[in-house]
Amino acid sequence: MSLRSGFISAAIIASLACSVPHATAHAAPGQLSRLSLLPLHDGLNTFESPLGPFSIFQAWRDNGNAWGYHMYVLTTVIDKRTSVIGIEGSSETPDHSFEDHLRDSPHTGEDALTTVQFAHGELDGKPATLLFEAIRNPKDGPVTSRGPTIIYIYSLVASDGVPGWTPLYFHFVKKIAVPGTFCSSDIALKVATGLPLSANAGPPSSPDGCFP
User: Fold this and answer.
1) What residue segments make up the domains of the chain, in order of their start?
2) Average pLDDT value for residue range 23-39
């Protein structure tokens, strides 16, 4: 790891899981630890969670150009019926409404704009199934340009029965701005969480995903 990426990782670790300096202090909510990637392949992927088994169906939407993407449909079985797992929206998330599927934006694979990963871990010291969505914004430059990345973090929870919400859904926990700029959201997410790159990610060209 380079000195620069080491500083970035240290800053992110401080955001993900801060230490408590005094016995009377309380850690801010949304602290993550013990992360382990849930590897995906095209088709149906089934995992256990603290709320029982759930599945992620991953499929590739080919556009015949660099703008193809993966689509993710999340499901669980409740009362012998396959039920969609939704994703909560808020004023702080990219999609402000309740969504019933996800999609990434890998572009050529080396300069990804949006990366989606799932992981097991602990949230505030309790077992959790987590969703990470990293969105890179090259702003006015081409897709290959450096840009800031924001990571949106969600945790799988059970609905309290509010009409319109799915029985299980991914609850928005918080967002983190990754220090520095990157040429790939895949790399930014790896730097921020320490999780390995997904099988779909292109090979890293450098610690920040940018070509020299």
Assistant:
1) 3-23+33-193
2) 80
In this structure, the number of other CB atoms found within 10 A of the CB of residue 133 comes to: 25
Cα–Cα dist 151/128, whole Å = 17
The token pair that represents 167 in the structure block: 């029985």
Instruction: Give me the DSSP letters along the chain.
Output: --HHHHHHHHHHHHHHS---SSTT--PPS--EEEEEE----SEEEEE--TT--EEEEEEEE--SSTT-EEEEEEEEEETTEEEEPEE---TTSSS-S-BS-EE-B-TTTTS-SEEEEEEEEEETTEEEEEEEEEEE--TTS-TTS-EEEEEEEEEEEE----TTS-SEEEEEEEEEEEEEEES-HHHHHHHHH-PPPPTTSPPPSSTTS---
Closest residue by Cα to residue 153 from 180, 193, 181: 193
Q: What percent of the chain has pLDDT over 90?
A: 68
Which amino acid, 140?
D
- C-alpha 148/C-alpha 176 separation (Å) is 11
> How long a stretch of residues is the chain?
212
150/10: higher pLDDT: 150
pLDDT in tens, 54-107: 999 999 999 889 899 999 999 999 999 999 999 999 899 988 889 999 999 999
